[in-house]
Write a structure and sequence with these properties.
- It is a single chain.
- This protein is an alpha/beta fold.
- It is about 35% helix and about 25% strand.
- It contains seven helices and nine strands, in the order E-E-E-H-H-H-E-H-E-H-H-E-E-E-E-H.
- The strands form two sheets. A six-stranded mixed sheet has the order 7-6-8-5-4-9. A three-stranded antiparallel sheet has the order 1-2-3.
- Helix 3 packs parallel to helix 4.
- The longest helix has 13 residues.
- It starts with a strand and ends with a helix.
- The relative contact order is 0.16.
């Protein structure tokens, strides 16, 4: 059974999903961060696990694709999406295919990662065609032709800070967010 095909291009990674005959592009980790940015994170002792694409993100995306009907008219937040936001992009792509409305919030604690997520969203024209895109509360793109299939909100979210919102989410998704023990309590508090 062919789940997806992954192809490494010069500065991008292409995922092809044969069951819906669609693809997603994301920047490769090497193309998404400069050496200076990585060194700066190391010097500041910032958690830099988000600058790598972890296999669990791909597995989460597969799980979502096989349970896509569960997300119909739901609000979903991805915690610790890293630089790619791959699972949320897969969710958006499959919602387009099935004409399912969904509101997605993609988060990471690093501003540099949320900037890269926004770039990855815009690498995928079909997603920007069907979803209203917001970054840190400001509208970036609204579909011209219709109301679209929902929204994609990209925002910086630090688990250790008080996060107050009137938003209630139907699903919280995350992958590889338990790498460092010192973040476990913050993650539990966030949820």
């Amino acid at each position: 059974y062919d789940i997806y095909r992954k192809e490494i291009l010069n500065d991008k990674i292409k995922y092809f999903f044969p069951d819906i005959n669609k693809e997603i592009l994301i920047k490769s980790p090497q193309a998404s961060m400069t050496v200076e940015e990585v060194i700066n994170m190391k010097e500041k002792k910032v958690d830099s696990t988000g600058i790598k694409l972890w296999p669990a993100e791909e597995v989460l995306g597969f799980f979502i694709s096989k349970n896509i009907e569960d997300y119909n008219s739901k609000k979903v937040i991805e915690l610790g999406a890293g630089y790619s936001g791959l699972a949320s992009l897969i969710l958006a792509l499959y919602c387009i295919e099935k004409k399912i409305h969904v509101d997605i919030t993609i988060t990471d604690e690093l501003e540099i990662c949320t900037e890269r997520i926004l770039e990855n969203v815009f690498l995928n024209e079909e997603i920007t065609k069907y979803f209203k895109i917001f970054k840190d509360g400001s509208a970036i793109k609204v579909p011209a032709e219709n109301e679209g299939l929902g929204t994609i909100h990209i925002q910086t979210l630090i688990w250790s800070k008080d996060f107050r919102t009137d938003n209630k989410y139907d699903y919280i998704i995350a992958s590889d967010c338990l790498f460092f023990k010192n973040f476990h309590i913050d993650l539990a508090h966030m949820i």
